[in-house]
Structures are given as structure tokens and as C-alpha cells.
Design goal:
The structure holds four protein chains of four kinds.
Chain A lengths: L19 H21 L5 H31 L6 H11 L2 H7 L1 H5 L1 H7 L2 H47 L5 H23 L4 H16 L1 H5 L6 H32 L2 H29 L12 H26 L9 H32 L2 H10 L2 H24 L1 H4 L2 H32 L12 H25 L11 H5 L4
Chain B lengths: L30 H13 L4 H27 L14 H25 L9 H22 L25 H34 L2 H10 L7 H34 L11 H27 L8 H31 L3 H11 L5 H13 L7 H5 L1 H28 L14 H24 L5 H6 L8 H15 L1
Helix pairs in contact in B: 2-14, 3-4, 3-7, 3-8, 3-13, 4-5, 4-14, 5-6, 5-7, 7-8, 8-9, 8-13, 11-13
Chain C lengths: L11 H23 L2 H4 L13 H7 L4 H4 L14 H8 L12 H7 L27 H5 L6 H4 L16 H9 L23 H11 L4 H8 L6 H12 L13
Helix pairs in contact in C: 5-6
The chains are: A mainly alpha, B mainly alpha, C mainly alpha, D alpha+beta.
């Protein structure tokens, strides 16, 4: 080793100058795509296009969320190696708010939302039916119940009369009659408890009809309802963007004054906010992806989506790093040691993703319970079976696993970036595999002639993907340029610059 | 937590409070001091307390032997299990012990791969703990088969019955997973021991010298040996890491591949692994805090080590809490009547509700005190919380295993379970065996990986002089 | 200071490894051979209270198996005859009534005999499957599986012994490919029966009656195939619709 | 302590002590540059970067382990397919008895892969570094036993073609050795 690098020599940082053609291209692609997409969506294709948009947004959101995870992990585990690449992670994470805002159309507009999450329209229809039913039956029901109450009260009166009629009952006889009275009184009181006002009766009847005609939605009504849905969406936005922006802003302030206080804050808050991060991401993917079929569920779902996000965010970081170095940035700061470490982390997460994906599949396959297997039944038959084996089993796991085993691969920036790009492609296939198979059956179910796919919809998928990629790229370039490319006065800079593994 | 320091304080930021790396060995100890201190434990007479602990442990071990002899000679009917609860304390204890082992592998393998140098002070003892815990764990399913002398049926040996093991059964995977785990852990431990056995060899006299010399295999510490040794150690760590994940995942498959409500849930594999690491770290702390005090190892196992372990307990405890909440949420969201009922039975009404709350408190609530610096550094609090966790993790397995079985799909098949004295004695006895083995380990083998601790001293880095120069330059500039 | 161990110890690892290797092979070989029913049961030939000679009764005299083992066709269990059955022939004034070998029989049956106890004869059971395995005699003998397939040529045994392993693999082999173990129902107790004893014409007629194929079709299908147990068995299997179960619950219930 | 080894006085080599890891590191670089081949450094712990200082390449143990792992997977897959698909097919839990049973075989395949890899690692390690070897000339040296405590030792064997008695001893002093000791067989 030719002597140590001194962090103090790097305290001015390195500014990124946005290549204006690239920025313009991103903006052009993003803006034009956005316009085109939503003009096209003003038609009966809106349903199919909603899936495309969800696919594109969740892909880029997962990368941004992965960036946030790596930032927080770096702080929480008190790491030193990654300080020089931490700013890139923070920049990725800072794109979360943009991505969630991009999701707003599908979250808010019924013609998108109802196509994606069938529980919205089905719940609405069930409730409408139920209220019609309640409207019709209400008066009869009230009368019926009141008659029952009257009957119960009569029975109490009759029993009391029985007791009074007996001239001198034996103690046993008296006790028997008294118990009977108490029993009947209790029954009458219970009947009388029911709210038989018009509103009360309507509510009872609505619930009854709802339960009978949409049992699943009735049982899940505490979670699957529009009010709570909006509360959750706001929570995801606030929690994820808040954490990302907070950590990034402290990191940038540290660039300016070099005060170790920021360093300590980032570490403490990263630890404390990790549970919020985990909760927000878990329920976000529950709502957005697991909710595509509201009858399906898996406790592993949050972990599965987390694994893919973390893996591919690291991949994107590697690609970004290589691109920046090609453009002449970070040349002296980032060494092959960093590539090696990032390669190892990618390898670890390739395995972790496979572990989670396999376990989830395996347990559902083994237990063979109807409401669970439907997810894999759809994806392990016909066209999707070949897709699963080719892209998820081989492409997402075996190939990168074997290639990343080799030490040499992790030490060659171009090669490791190639592997990362491959992984990103597989990640897109993974998310597509989650979203697209739901589209055909969902959109055609009401016609009675269920189609597994919507012909030609892939065009919208590509359009949406390219559009969101453009927007993502545009904001990423801006974020890169808005601060030094690495935390230049971080107290752990020495350690990171001289890392050996 | 006020931040008193600011940029104006004449300390370079890299040496500021909360930034500077804490020393892994305190008081600038030399290499020779480490050798003397650790080898001293083996070479000197054991303190009285060692004997005070050893005698009852042997007694416990004899209880274990007695209850096993009684069990085998009488039959498994002496256990309290019956229909529908066919798995009781035996499997609870199996999962408990196998989980304890996981921290050892985590410390030795995963922390090695992630270059966490603080592992060196605690890895030897934790690996020993792993091996002893897996030995304890193996007893329970081994005898649970009923006819212990037929255990060889588990091995795929050609036979004239043309019977082959059902390789689709999670129970057979367990056989492979646990035996592989034990073998690989033993190999890993022994490979790590070789250089330290050589140290003991070079200090011992008489018969001890021959014994240590024999087991040290003639280690000479040449770099031409070290380089392959290090590679072997790295590979074993890389093999153990997925192995440790797989073992508890396979254990979780015993439950999760079934359709029993409360058992079948997809998060079981990572949840079991996190729980195992969680419980294992608690056991490491339970063992290491007294050892540290008893043998004066405060300079080697420092507050930093305990702090880190407390943080891992906090992290894994929170992951386990996440899994508990996922289970509860999905039991609601899944809207499956049986599943919902199983959890209703666990948390609201049912004969074992107390066990659920016991588990939840010990595993999720109690470790939350480790958010506070004070609690991570007060040894009594750490010790008490660690024991809460030990206790809670046993209850976790209890909540999962018998309570799910006690309520089958048909009310006609419901039934409760309580352990018989044989099961209790067996469990108590397994602790006796565990403690006995651990105390013998303390007596005869180096409790701290001497060679590895030496490697993490700052002066052990061949570039130490350069780092020192950089630091001195900075100090001069700051002042 | 000096070396702790002499120089020859450097070869010790190889010696130890070699010994361990040999030991391991031996252990596996012994376990493989001796932990199996093949080893433990075949050839088992206990002494019976009365040295009943099957080769004399079933072989020379040509008594049908079912004369004594009466329930074999209509019960899962093939019974050991009661002393009364022996008494039919060996009663007072009949065959060898005074033979000393028959004393246990007289003790069981003859009220006038001084050693009379009235207790049954304590035959020693030779063929035994484990308690967790159920073998149904009725199901087998009524579907063309002869006694000889499991018990061997009892009609040639002066003293009966355990002739076949009756291990699980033994059962499974037949359940997987029962063809060469099947024969016409009227030949079940003919232990000496061979394929050539069967008249092909009558056999084809019988099979044609049971299946949809005509005699000609059957013959055409068999053209060029040797007349063998296997061929006969395959037709019988078709004719009777035999599907031997191979799941665990077939025998372990 | 008896000395059971032979007592020939033939020279095995020199053991030289250095004061720190850094010193030993630089000394090793110089010995490497001087072109010696039969020499080694003996340290209480593996010194980071010493392979580079001694001019040694990367350990090739991992190739053996790969072989062990592949044979482990193949053993497990063959064992399971052979027994479950052809020898003794049983339908359990409505799982197929054909190629698509393979997910059920993963756990055992994985475990055996790890097990045989671990065996390959240990076997390979002991073969490459030629242990156990209980008797070695270096154990005759009193200075040598310091390696397991706090000694940083450099050993040059007399069998090295570049070894020239006094000249080598001078070289060792030059590169900063403290105590230097002759070791005989």
C-alpha cells in the first residue's frame, strides 16, 4: 500500500455537473411519455394501463426505498466502509417523494384504482346493494323485531302471573318460577338492546347483507376501507420521504460544517426510524401489490419485496458509480475495494432474495391451501410457468449467484455493473410477474369469458416504464448535482478511503 | 442526549465522541499479556465458584441420564403427550436448544464475513455454546422417535425392507440439517482452536503438553500455513452462514409446511432464524457476563462488546416482534376462520393465553430498554434482560407448538397438555449437561480466541506506524 | 526445548485414516447384512410339540392345505388347525393312535388318557409379520396367489421352516409386478403347479369370458411370446383387474 | 523433557526474531526480493497483507471446495431421485413423484452440499498445509516457541539454494532481526 489517504485532503468534495444533453433527454422522454400515457389513458384502456403505471412506479420506488435502506443500515450498523458511496444512497432515497407522487393517479382516480384493486368497486357495489336491501326491508324488519320484543315481554308478564297465581308455592316451585322469570327477562332485555331506530335498523341490515354477499370483504372491512386506505397512503408518504429527506439534509449540513454532531444524529435517528421504515414499506407493498388480489395473503410479502429492493438498489448504485467514474468523477475516492464490498453485498442479497422467494413458494406449495395456492397456480401454469423458471429461478438467482461467486468479477467495475444491470432487468421481471398476471383475469372477470392476458398491453408497460425511467433519471441527475458526490467532511472518511477487505 | 462538542473543540472530528472507533482491547495490552491472561484460566486452579457450579451441573447431567434410562425402559408414554398434542416439551426443548446454538454460528461466521472485529473476544465461547446446545437439542427428537434403538432408520442405508426415508418430509430434512450443522460447527470450532492449542502446548508441561500437542496437530504458525488456514476459515464461515439460516428454516418447515392454524405461515423461516439468533445472543450474554467477571476478562470483553450484543438483541427482538405482528395481522386479514380462531385463542381467550403474553413481554417489550445507553452498559440490567429473553424464547416455542395442536379443526379433537415430571426432569437435566460441558470447556480450553484477539490489536496491523503518524499529524494541527 | 513427539508420529495420521476407513466399511457391511429380516428369519425351523410332517401329509398323501388351514379362503388369518382336526384321523383306533409322537394330541383330546389336560397343542409360530403390518390371506388366495409364493414348498418339508424373507421388500416386489405370482384359482393349493400344466385353450376361453377381448385377439396378442407364468399372470391380472396397492396404508393400518 | 528426536547436528536453518508486525512485514518484502524460496514467517496471528509481502498468490483451496460442493449436491440429488422416484415412489402430501418433486429435495441437497464442502475444506486444508505433523525440526528451537505467544519470526531454511550460512545471517541482521538462532534437525 502506498501510504494512507488523508480524509482532510478531500474536504472540498466533488461537484457533479449535469450533462445537459442527458438531462434534456430524460426530461423529454419523461415529459412526453407522461403526456402520451395519460392522453392514451383517457379511454377504455385505462384499466389495463393502470397496471402498467403501477409496474413502472413500483420498480423505481423500490430502488429508491432500497437506497434509503442502505443509508439507514450504514448509519445504524456504524459502518465505515461505505462513507464514500453514502451520498449516492442518499440521493437515491431522496427520490422517494417524487415516485410516490407519480403514483397518485392510480391511487386517486377511480378508473385506474378500481381496475387495480378490485376491492374498491366490489366493496362499493356490495355496500350499494346492501343499502338498497336495507331500504326495502327496514320497515318490515323493525316491525318484526318489535313484535318479537312484545312477545318476549308478554312471556315475562305471563310468567310473573304464573308465580302470582300459585297460592302458596313450595320453596322449590318458587325457585323454579323465579329462575324462569329471570331467564325470560334477560332474553327480553337482550332483544330490547338492539337499536331499532331507522338508522340503527338500516345499519344492522346493511351489515347482514354485506356479510352474506361479500363475506371476505366484510371480514376485512376494518382494513379494506377507503378512509383507512388514505390514512395509510399518507403515512407511507410521510414516513418514507420524511426519513429520506431528513437523513440527506443532515448529511449535507455535515458537508458544510464538519460537525460530528450530525454524524451522531444520523446514527441515532437511523436506528430509531428503522421500525417505521419497515412498517411503511411492508404495508405499502401489502396495499399496492398484495391488494391486487384481496383474497390472497402471505406474511412473508413485505420481506420478499424488501429483499428485491435492497438487492437492486445496490445494483443501481454500482452502475451509477461506474458511470460517474467513467465520466471522471470519484476516481480517487472510490477504489476497487468498494466495488468488491458492494459486489459481496449484492451476492448476499441475491441469496437472501432467493431464500425468501423460495420459502414463500415452498410453504404455500406444500400446505396446498386453496386461498394461498391461487397466487402460484396462476404463475406456475401455462405461459407464466416458463417465465417463472427462466427469469426468476434461473435469471434472478442461479446466474447471478454463480457469477458473483467469482472474486474476479467483483473487482472489475464494468463486469460487476453488467451483472447489476442484469439483476435490475430480472427485478423488473420479478415485479412484472407479480403485477401482470393479475391484469387479464381482473379486467375480464365480469365478462364471463376470462382472459389470462390483455393483448397488446405490453406496449403500455414499456411506455410507462420508459416514462417513469425518464422522470427518475431527471430528478436523480438534479439530486446528484445538488451536493458533493460524497460526504466530504464526514468523520469516517479516512476509514472509507483506506478500506481494505 | 445533549451534544456538547462542536466543531470548535480542538479534537479532529474523526476522534470525536461517538465517531472514534473504540478499542477492542482496553488498556493497550500487549500480545504477551493476552496469552498470559487467557492461558492462565486453564493453567491456574479454578476458583471455588467453578466447583460450586460444576457439582450441581454434574448432578443435573445424572438426572438427564436417569430420566432417559427411565424413558427408554418404560416407553414414551411417561411423557405427558397424547392426542391431539403429540408434540410437547420434547420438541419445544429441541427448538429451544437448537435456537440457542445459532448465536454461536452468527458470531463466528456472519460477523466474520461482515468483518466485525469485535467478534474475536466472544466467538470461541459462543461456538462452544453452539456445539453443546446442539448436543442438548439432539437428545430430544432422538428419544422422541419412541424406540431409540431404531434411530438408525433415519439414515438412508440399503435394507431388505426396501424402505427409504421419505425425503419429502420436513422431519427428515431436520435430520440432515441438524447433523450437518453439528458437524460443520464442530469443524469450524476445531479449526479455530488449533493455533490456540499450539499456544497452550508451548506453555504447558508434562502430560498436558503431550495432550495439547497432540490436538494442536503440530501447528507452526507459518504464513504458508496461515494463508490457507485463513482461506479455509473464510470458506467455513461462508458455508456456515447459509447453513445457519437453513437449519432454523428447516426447523420452521416442520411446522409451516403443515396446515395447522398457527403453524402455517410463510414468514416462519426468517422469523425462526431471527428468533434463534435473538435467543442465542441472550444465552451468550448469560454465560459470558459471569465468565468475564470471574476470570477478570474486562479488558478483552469490554463494554463495547456487551453494548453490541445488546444492540443485536434489540434488533432481532424487534424483528421477532415484526413477525408476531405480521402473524396477527394476516390472521385477521386472511379472514380464515381457523387461523383467526387460533390467534384469538392465543391472545384473547384460551388455556395458554398467559404463555403468549409471557412470550410477548419477554421477547418484544423487555429488550426495548436497550434503546437506552444506560441499560446497555449496566451489567445487571443486561443480565436480567438476557434472562428474560432466554425465558421468553422458550415460551415462544411453547406457544407455537402445543397451543396450536391443542385446538384442532374439530372441537371434538380438542385437548390440553401439561408436561409430566419426566419431561421436566429431562429439560432440567439438559441444562445440567449444557453447564457441565461449558464448565469443562472453561477448564481445559482457551475461552477466548487468543490468536484472533491478537490480530485485532491496533499494533498488529503492519501499517500501524502509518496510521499513528496520520493521527499525530492531526493532533498537532488541532492543537 | 525439543520435539514433544518422535519422528514416526508424522506417519500416524495416515495410519489412523486407513484404520478408520477399514473400520467404517466393516461397520456398514455388518449393519447392512445383519440388520435385515433376510438374515434374521429365513431358515428359522423350530421344533414343534408334535413333529408333524408336511411332506408326508401334504406331499405324499396329497391332502389339500385347506383340510387343516380351513379359514384361509374366507378370513384375513390362516388358522392353525385345532387338535380336533388331527383327532379326525389320529383318534382312538385310527391311524397311529398309539404313537408316542402324538402324546400332546392325546393330552389335548383323549379324556381317558392319563396325561389329559384338555389344553390345546402349543404349536410354535413360524411365519410372522410384525404387528404393525397386516397381511390378508383371503385377499391373496382368492386372487390367484398361491400358498407357495410366501411359504415355499411346504409339501416337501418334513419340518416346516421359514423359506422366504417376508420382508417389506419381498411384499413390495410382488405388489409392483405381481404377474409371475398369479395362477388360476383352482391351482392355489397345488404347490407344484407349473405354467405348462395349464391348458391354453381353456385358459384363453376363461380370460375371454372375463374381458372384452375374444380368444383370437388374445392369441394374436401373445403370438411369439413363450408360454410362461408371466404371460398367464398378465392375462389374469387383466381379467381380475388386480391393482396391488403400494401406499403405506395398504398394510400399515 | 526428553528429546526423542534424532540428535543429528545438520543445520535446518535460521530463526530470526523481529520486534513487530510492521518490521516483519518489511523484512519479508526484503527476503522476497532477495530471491529466497524456502523460507517462511511465523506469527501468533495471520498478518494482513503478508501474502503480498512474501510474494505468495491467492490460496487455491476454494477450487477444492467447489468440487466438494458439487459432489455433495449430486450425491443428494441422485440419492433422493433414485429412492423417491424410481426405487420407492410414495405419494405423500399429494406431491408428485417425478422431476417436479424437486423443490422438496432442496433442503437435503443444500445440507449435503454444505457438508461435503466443509469436508473438502478441512481435508484440503490439512493436505495443503501438511498437518497433522507432530514432529518438526523447528520444534527443536527454543526461540521458535515464541511464535505462539508474541514472537514475530522469520525462518530461512538451509535447503534454500540461496542460503549461504554467514551471508544469510548478515542479511537477517541487516533487515532488522533481533535474536537469530540456528536450528538443527
Amino acid at each position: 500500500m502506498a501510504g494512507l489517504k488523508d480524509g482532510d485532503d478531500y474536504r472540498d468534495g466533488e461537484r457533479f455537473k449535469i450533462p445537459s444533453t442527458l438531462q434534456f433527454a430524460c426530461l423529454g422522454v419523461g415529459g412526453a411519455g407522461l403526456l402520451l400515457f395519460f392522453i392514451l389513458a383517457m379511454s377504455d384502456r385505462a384499466g389495463a394501463m393502470a397496471y402498467s403505471w403501477l409496474f413502472a412506479v413500483i420498480f423505481f420506488l423500490s430502488l429508491a426505498v432500497g437506497g434509503l435502506f442502505w443509508t439507514m443500515l450504514h448509519h445504524a450498523s456504524n459502518s465505515g466502509w461505505g462513507t464514500v458511496v453514502r451520498r449516492l444512497m442518499e440521493n437515491l432515497a431522496s427520490l422517494i417523494p417524487f415516485m410516490i407522487v407519480l403514483a397518485l393517479p392510480i391511487l386517486a382516480f377511480p378508473n385506474f384504482r378500481d381496475a387495480l384493486w378490485e376491492w374498491f368497486p366490489e366493496r362499493k357495489a356490495a355496500l350499494a346493494d346492501a343499502s338498497t336491501y336495507a331500504e326495502q326491508k327496514r320497515d318490515a324488519y323493525i316491525a318484526e323485531r318489535q313484535a318479537e320484543i312484545a312477545k318476549a315481554e308478554e312471556a315475562v308478564a305471563a310468567a310473573k302471573k304464573d308465580l302470582a297465581d300459585v297460592a302458596s308455592p313450595s320453596p322449590g316451585h318458587r325457585l323454579h318460577l323465579e329462575r324462569r322469570i329471570a331467564e325470560l327477562e334477560e332474553k327480553a332485555a337482550k332483544l330490547a338492546e338492539e337499536d331499532l331506530s331507522e338508522a340503527g335498523a338500516t345499519a344492522t341490515l346493511v351489515d347482514k347483507h354485506f356479510l352474506d354477499h361479500a363475506t371476505l370483504l366484510f371480514n376485512k372491512r376494518g382494513y379494506l376501507n377507503e378512509g383507512f386506505w388514505w390514512v395509510r397512503q399518507i403515512f407511507y408518504f410521510v414516513a418514507l420521504s420524511g426519513i429520506a429527506l431528513l437523513l440527506r439534509s443532515w448529511s449535507i449540513r455535515l458537508d458544510h460544517d464538519g460537525d460530528p454532531k450530525w454524524f451522531r444524529w444520523m446514527r441515532r435517528w437511523s436506528c430509531g426510524l428503522l421500525p417505521f421504515f419497515a412498517t411503511a414499506w411492508t404495508f405499502l407493498v401489502f396495499d399496492w401489490l398484495m391488494g391486487l388480489d384481496y383474497s390472497w395473503f402471505s406474511t412473508m410479502w413485505g420481506v420478499y419485496l424488501f429483499a428485491g429492493a435492497a438487492l437492486n438498489s445496490m445494483g443501481l448504485l454500482v452502475i451509477l458509480l461506474t458511470a460517474l467514474r467513467k465520466a471522471g468523477y470519484l476516481k480517487d475516492v472510490v477504489t476497487l475495494e468498494h466495488y468488491h464490498l458492494m459486489g459481496k453485498l449484492m451476492h448476499a442479497f441475491v441469496i437472501f432474495w432467493a431464500y425468501i422467494a423460495f420459502s414463500q413458494f415452498f410453504l404455500i406449495w406444500y400446505a396446498n391451501i386453496t386461498e394461498e395456492t391461487q397466487f402460484f397456480l396462476m404463475r406456475n401454469t401455462a405461459f407464466w410457468n416458463g417465465y417463472t423458471i427462466a427469469f426468476l429461478v434461473v435469471g434472478h438467482f442461479f446466474l447471478p449467484f454463480v457469477v458473483l461467486l467469482l472474486r474476479k468479477v467483483k473487482l472489475m467495475p464494468m463486469v460487476i455493473s453488467g451483472v447489476a444491470a442484469w439483476n435490475l432487468l430480472m427485478h423488473a421481471f420479478d415485479l412484472y410477474w407479480i403485477i401482470a398476471p393479475e391484469r387479464g383475469p381482473s379486467l375480464t372477470a365480469h365478462t364471463g369469458n376470462i382472459q389470462m392476458t390483455i393483448p397488446g398491453a405490453w406496449v403500455y408497460d414499456i411506455l410507462a416504464f420508459v416514462t417513469v425511467a425518464g422522470i427518475f433519471g431527471f430528478f436523480l441527475l438534479r439530486q446528484l448535482a445538488s451536493a458533493s458526490l460524497f460526504p466530504c467532511r464526514d468523520p469516517r472518511l479516512d476509514e472509507s478511503l483506506n478500506v481494505v477487505n | 442526549m445533549a451534544d456538547t462538542s462542536s466543531a470548535n473543540v480542538p479534537v479532529h472530528p474523526s476522534e470525536a465522541e461517538g465517531v472514534a472507533r473504540e478499542q477492542l482491547v482496553l488498556n493497550n495490552r500487549s500480545l504477551g499479556w493476552i496469552t498470559d491472561r487467557v492461558c492462565g484460566i486453564v493453567e491456574n486452579r479454578q476458583p471455588l465458584i467453578w466447583w460450586v457450579l460444576f457439582v450441581p451441573s454434574v448432578f443435573g447431567f445424572l438426572c438427564l441420564v436417569f430420566s432417559l434410562v427411565y424413558l427408554v425402559s418404560t416407553g414414551v408414554g411417561v411423557w405427558g403427550m397424547n392426542h391431539p398434542v403429540a408434540w410437547g416439551w420434547d420438541i419445544v426443548n429441541f427448538v429451544f436448544w437448537i435456537g440457542i446454538g445459532h448465536a454461536g454460528t452468527l458470531i463466528s461466521a456472519i460477523l466474520f464475513l461482515t468483518r466485525q472485529k469485535w467478534r474475536t473476544s466472544v466467538n470461541r465461547a459462543s461456538e462452544a455454546m453452539t456445539i453443546f446446545a446442539v448436543m442438548c437439542a439432539g437428545i430430544f427428537p432422538g428419544f422422541h422417535v419412541g424406540r431409540f434403538w431404531m434411530v438408525w432408520f433415519l439414515a438412508p442405508i440399503p435394507n431388505s425392507n426396501a424402505i427409504w426415508q421419505n425425503f419429502k418430509s420436513p422431519l427428515l430434512w431436520d435430520v440432515f440439517a441438524v447433523s450437518t450443522y453439528f458437524t460443520v460447527s464442530l469443524i469450524f470450532w476445531y479449526i479455530g482452536l488449533i493455533p490456540d492449542l499450539a499456544t497452550l502446548r508451548d506453555r504447558a508441561k508434562g502430560i498436558a503438553k503431550k495432550l495439547y500437542g497432540f490436538f494442536a496437530f503440530g501447528w507452526r504458525g507459518g504464513n504458508r500455513q496461515w494463508r490457507h488456514y485463513e482461506m479455509a476459515y473464510l470458506i467455513l464461515a461462508a458455508l456456515s452462514t447459509p447453513l445457519v439460516l437453513s437449519v432454523h428454516s428447516v426447523v420452521s418447515f416442520d411446522f409451516a409446511t403443515s396446515v395447522i392454524p398457527g403453524w402455517h405461515t410463510t414468514i416462519f423461516p426468517p422469523y425462526f432464524v431471527a428468533g434463534a439468533i435473538f435467543g442465542g445472543f441472550a444465552m451468550v450474554l448469560t454465560l459470558m457476563l459471569p465468565v468475564r467477571k470471574l476470570y477478570g476478562l474486562e479488558d478483552l470483553i469490554t463494554g463495547k462488546h456487551i453494548d453490541n450484543m445488546a444492540k443485536i438483541i434489540l434488533l432481532t427482538g424487534t424483528i421477532v416482534g415484526y413477525a408476531y405482528i405480521m402473524e396477527l395481522f394476516i390472521s385477521y386479514y386472511g379472514a380464515n376462520a381457523f387461523e383467526a380462531d387460533a390467534f384469538h385463542m392465543r391472545i384473547l381467550s384460551g388455556p395458554y393465553t398467559w404463555a403468549y403474553y409471557c412470550m410477548f413481554f419477554c421477547n418484544v417489550i423487555a429488550p426495548q430498554v436497550f434503546w437506552f445507553h444506560y441499560c446497555r452498559h449496566n451489567l445487571w440490567i443486561v443480565f436480567i434482560i438476557a434472562n428474560f429473553v432466554n425465558f421468553g424464547m422458550w415460551f415462544e416455542r411453547f406457544v407455537i407448538i402445543p397451543t396450536s395442536l391443542a385446538r384442532d379443526f374439530l372441537p371434538g379433537q380438542w385437548g390440553n397438555y401439561s408436561a409430566s415430571w419426566v419431561e421436566k426432569l429431562l429439560f432440567g437435566g439438559s441444562f445440567g449437561m449444557f453447564m457441565m460441558l461449558f464448565l469443562l470447556f472453561l477448564r481445559f480450553l482457551p475461552v477466548i480466541a487468543i490468536g484472533e484477539v491478537k490480530g485485532v490489536l491496533p499494533q498488529s496491523d503492519p501499517h500501524y506506524p502509518e496510521w499513528k503518524r496520520l493521527r499525530e499529524k492531526r493532533r498537532a494541527a488541532a492543537n | 526445548m525439543g520435539n514433544i513427539f518422535p519422528r514416526w508420529t508424522n506417519l500416524l495420521p495416515f495410519k489412523i485414516l486407513a484404520c478408520l476407513g477399514v473400520l467404517g466399511v466393516c461397520v456398514i457391511a455388518v449393519a447392512w447384512y445383519s440388520f435385515t429380516p433376510k438374515y434374521t428369519r429365513v431358515g428359522y425351523m423350530p421344533q414343534q410339540p408334535i413333529p408333524f410332517d408336511h411332506s408326508l401329509h401334504a406331499g405324499q398323501l396329497g391332502m389339500d392345505c385347506r383340510y387343516c388351514h380351513t379359514h384361509v379362503e374366507n378370513s384375513p388369518h390362516s388358522n392353525i388347525p385345532a387338535a380336533q382336526v388331527c383327532w379326525n384321523c389320529h383318534g382312538p383306533g385310527k391311524v397311529k393312535a398309539d404313537s408316542p409322537k402324538l402324546e400332546p394330541l392325546r393330552a389335548a383330546m383323549d379324556e381317558n388318557y392319563e396325561g389329559y389336560t384338555g389344553q390345546p397343542i402349543e404349536w410354535v409360530q413360524i411365519h410372522k409379520v410384525p404387528e404393525y403390518a397386516h397381511f390378508n390371506h383371503m385377499a391373496h388366495v382368492n386372487r390367484g396367489v398361491s400358498c407357495v409364493e410366501c411359504h415355499g414348498r411346504v409339501d416337501e418339508m418334513p419340518v416346516v421352516y421359514h423359506a422366504k424373507p417376508l420382508s417389506m421388500s419381498f411384499c413390495l416386489e410382488c405388489h409392483r409386478a405381481p404377474e409371475d405370482k398369479l395362477r388360476p384359482l383352482d391351482q392355489i393349493t397345488n404347490l407344484a403347479w407349473k405354467a405348462d400344466d395349464l391348458d391354453p385353450e381353456a385358459f384363453y376361453a376363461y380370460v375371454a369370458g372375463k374381458t372384452e377381448a375374444s380368444v383370437d385377439e388374445l392369441k394374436k396378442g401373445d403370438a411369439g411370446k413363450p408360454w410362461s407364468r408371466e404371460l398367464i399372470g398378465s392375462h389374469l391380472r387383466q381379467a381380475w383387474g388386480i391393482h396391488p396397492p403400494q401406499d403405506c396404508a395398504a398394510c400399515h393400518y | 523433557m526428553s528429546n526423542p528426536s534424532s540428535s543429528s547436528n545438520e543445520l535446518f536453518g535460521y530463526v530470526a526474531e523481529f520486534s513487530s508486525a510492521a518490521d516483519l512485514y518489511h523484512a519479508a518484502e526484503k527476503v522476497r526480493d532477495a530471491g529466497f524460496r524456502r523460507w517462511d514467517v511465523h506469527t501468533p496471528y495471520p498478518v494482513h497483507g503478508m501474502d503480498h509481502a512474501m510474494g505468495l498468490g491467492k490460496s487455491w483451496l476454494s477450487a477444492l471446495v467447489l468440487g466438494g460442493g458439487i459432489s455433495g449436491s449430486l450425491t443428494a440429488l441422485l440419492l433422493q431421485f433414485f429412492t423417491q422416484v424410481s426405487l420407492y415412489p410414495t405419494v405423500v402430501q399429494s406431491k408428485p413423484t417425478n422431476l417436479f418433486t424437486i423443490p422438496a429435495f432442496f433442503p437435503v441437497t443444500f445440507e449435503l452440499t454444505i457438508l461435503l464442502s466443509a469436508f473438502a475444506t478441512v481435508g484440503g486444508l490439512f493436505t495443503i498445509i501438511a498437518l497433522p505433523r507432530w514432529n518438526h525440526p523447528l520444534f527443536n528451537s527454543p526461540l521458535f516457541s515464541k511464535f505462539s505467544n508474541d514472537g514475530f519470526l522469520l525462518v530461512i531454511e538451509a535447503r534454500d539454494p540461496k542460503f549461504h550460512g554467514e551471508k544469510t545471517r548478515e542479511l537477517l541482521s541487516e533487515i532488522g532481526a533481533g535474536q537469530i538462532e540456528e536450528v538443527t534437525y
